[in-house]
Amino acid sequence: MLISVDDIVFRTIDAASHDLRKLSLSIHDNPELALNETHACKAITDYLKSRGFKVEHSVAGLQTAFVASYVSPAGAYGGLRIGFCSEYDALPGLGHACGHNLIAISGIAMFLAISAVLDACRIPGTVRLFGTPAEENVGGKIIMQKAGVFDGSDLLMIMHPTIGYSGTWHSQCCQKMSVEYFGKASHSAAAPWDGINAGTAASLAQIAMGATREQLRPDWRANSIITTGGEAANIIPEYSRIECIIRASWAKDLRVLEQRTLDIFRSAALATGCTHKVTTEFAYLDNQDNPVLGKMYEGIMREKYKVPPTFGQGASTDFGNLSQSFISLHGNYDLAGTGAPNHTSKFAHDARTEKAHENTLFAAKTSARVAARCVVDGVFWEQVKKAHADRLND
Questions:
Q1: Other CB atoms closer than 10 Å to residue 217's CB: what's the count?
Q2: Domain stops at, among 210, 245, 280
Q3: Which helix (H) or strand (E) holds 340?
Q4: Close Cβ partners of 228 (under 8 Å, ≥ 6 residues apart)
Q5: Which intervals hold domain Peptidase M20 dimerisation (predicted)?
Q6: Which end of the chain is more exposed for a tag (fewer CB within 10 A), N or C?
């Protein structure tokens, strides 16, 4: 009896559903912050090894990063090199309020499905599952990309729960920055003139940030907080610190906004006589899905939900950095139909439900079907590559 590629995808993911549900709940009930996802990493890699897959641990110098791989019985030469990403870090105080327990199992589901397609069809190729820590903070994928972990990939995919669905999501660029001001302590009543007020420098920077927002483009964001402003009211503060996040829709705009922010930090130091130090983390660049892959993904999702895709902005992901260099799909799907936004306690609650599990596996099947078509349909794959080349040449 002939079995279609779609049937292989469905049967493989359905057969793993029980195990994936257990993994999802285990990760959800043991939330771990960026670069400390030891329970989640061990649970996932133990499961993969129990299925006979080769797993490389602590890649790119990150203890909780891994790569699992499978090579077709027909060999790797001449075939596609497809990669899927799993995330599993949680949010401070909210746990899995972005559904990374589900992103973890969706990556596994797609990896299992395409491994089964390569095996059953005896098509050359390699499939890899990238365990990517610290998406919510630090940017694990960026570190892994700089270390060459994704090199050689023809196609990269990830799934993400949210409100609604989309296969052509353009995220915002995001840059985290901090500034420290260094002044001189003095008694605020007896000899304030002997002090250099680092707290005032932080306040001036905050005021300038607020004033600058009036001239920012509608899609630009600049948000900051003073994390340290002083120790006591009767002491001129010698140290202060601000944490800041800036966002823009495009990388070139982010650079403009970054320079404005640096100017503000410098001017506050100049006005108060403080010295200052700016620390800048890796920038999360905007996600750019491949339109051919996205159209197929959205077509399948629309058949199920009977509503058009949702084109939202306002969030950022380190997968965006991968999409700048690789053919990619960041498939968004509806978490549980409750309308709860990401990064809320309600979203964390919904991420544990059976409905969220069902929606996750359907989205994983959909994305795996897209990946499988790239494997078996040479004409379709050429269209995908052309769309990628056209974007790079724009």
A1: 11
A2: 280
A3: none
A4: 202, 239, 240, 241
A5: 178-269
A6: N
Find all residues with CB under 8 Å of 15, minimum gap 6, and list them.
none
Report how far residue 18's alpha carbon sits from residue 361's, in angstroms, rounded to the nearest whole number: 11
Task: State how many domains the chain has.
Answer: 2
For 82-119, how does the pLDDT look when each residue is reduced to its tens digit (9 = 90+)? 999 999 999 999 999 999 999 999 999 999 999 999 99
Strand 155-162 relative to strand 80-86, pairing: parallel
79 shares its domain with 208: no
CB 61 within 8 A of CB 108: no
In 3D, which of 6, 107, 2 has the Cα closest to residue 375?
Answer: 6
207 and 104 housed in the same domain: no
Q: Are residue 205 and residue 324 in the same domain, yes or no? A: no
In whole angstroms, give the CA distance from residue 150 to residue 71.
16
pTM exceeds 0.90, yes or no = yes
Nearest residue to 221 via CA among 240, 244, 198: 244
Query: What does the pLDDT look like over 106-161, one tens digit per residue?
Result: 999 999 999 999 999 999 999 999 999 999 989 999 999 999 999 999 999 999 99
Tokens of 136: 């919510």
Per DSSP, 75 falls in state: -
* Contact call for residues 166 and 305 (beta carbons, < 8 A): no
Q: Are residues 144 and 253 in the same domain?
A: no
| Residue carrying the six token digits 């079907």 | 369
Query: What is the DSSP annotation of 264-319?
Result: HHHHHHHHHT-EEEEEEPPPBPPP---HHHHHHHHHHHHHHH-S------S---TH
By DSSP bridging, strand 125-131 and strand 80-86 are parallel
Instruction: Supply the range of the domain harboring residue 369.
Output: 5-171+285-393
- Residue 305 CA to residue 206 CA, distance in Å, equals 45
Which domain-ending residue is among 258, 280, 302?
280
Residue 114 — φ and ψ, nearest 5°? -75, -30
pLDDT at 313 (0 to 100): 60
Q: Which amino acid is at 150?
A: F
Residues 276 and 291 in one domain: no
Q: What is the CATH number of the domain that holds 201?
A: 3.30.70.360
Same domain? 337 vs 194: no
Residues 164 and 79 in one domain: yes
Q: Residue 163, SS3?
A: coil
In this structure, what CATH number is given to the domain that contains residue 126? 3.40.630.10
> Are residues 12 and 106 located together in one domain of the fold?
yes
Name the β-bridge partners of 175. 246
